[in-house]
Amino acid sequence: MSAEFYIIFENIDWYYSNKDKIKQKIMSLNTFIYHTNDEFWLKEDKQFNDLYFDIRLFLDDEYILLEITMHPANIEKDLKEFCNWLRLHTIIKIQDEDFNISNW
Are 56 and 41 spatial neighbours (Cβ–Cβ below 8 Å)? Predict the structure, then answer.
């Protein structure tokens, strides 16, 4: 079973203008293993298996969807690094599928 979180951008224009930088940042994370179009996979170990991921990030038109199956320490570190990087550039909020705000 996985959990879903949404990264919501206060300034959607920033998101549109910086999607390529966001993609580059995701691909620079230590746990990054795979991407196709606007879907990115993070995994604790680097062995690719198309049935297994720890986190998938989907760059949607208006938000980033995080689908989380597991979050061991190195995945949490990368996810925190990514969210902090976003916060350096724009205002975001992270919420779950029930609209509860996360403190990540």
Answer: yes
